[in-house]
Each structure stands twice: as structure tokens, then as C-alpha cells.
Target: L-ectoine synthase
Amino acid sequence: MIVKKLKDILDTKNDIYGYNWNSRRILLKKDGMGYSMADTVVKKGTETFIWYKNHYETCYCIEGEGELELADENGKKTGEIYKIRPETMYALNGNEKHYLRATSEDMRLICVFNPALTGNETHDKDGTYPLLD
Model:
């Protein structure tokens, strides 16, 4: 049985900050579940290019609003936009390149990754998390 509380993650090594986001990594590879889970805040007014070529990601919005815009193989915006609001789930089951924007306020997402994150990943120049052991 694994039980964790967000307050126990805050301000620890599992509370990761990026320029546009903050990822509180709750469940990690070392927990042995085969997937990981994070409570992520995307900052209002920001846009982040992301491409999880090594992972599948599913996100469920619990606060705020934003949008996801798909990108082509070169990272160019396609104009295909999905509005993200509370009670909205999106799954990147094709390793889609995309831009994530928080529009009206900070957007809070519960994010699940497969394979599991170790907790040490940061986005590289391609917007990708590398596979770490």
C-alpha cells in the first residue's frame, strides 16, 4: 500500500520547477507501479512546447483553463486546438508534439506517465523527457 499527501511532496526534491510549470511528482518509478503520477501546475499566460517521444501521457484537469495545440513533425503549430477545462482529460497516445497553454489562470493537471518517470527528468531541447533508469 502506498499513501502520499501533496503537502509531503512540496518543497522536496520531488517538487520540480520549470519556467512555465511546477511538477509535484507523487508516484515514481521506484514505487513499482509501472507508471508515474504528478500534480502539475501550468502557469497562466505561458506556452510550452512538449514532445513525449519516449512516454505516453494522460492528463486530467482539476483547476484552471487552457488549451493544447497539436504540432507537426517539425514542431509547427497545426491550428488543431483542444480546450482544457476542469473535468477534461486528454491522452497523448500517439506521442504527439504539442503546445500547452494556460489561458485564464494557472491550470492544474493530474498527469500519468508510462513508462514511469524516475523524478529526475527535465524537458530537453526537443521538449522530451529522456528514458532514465
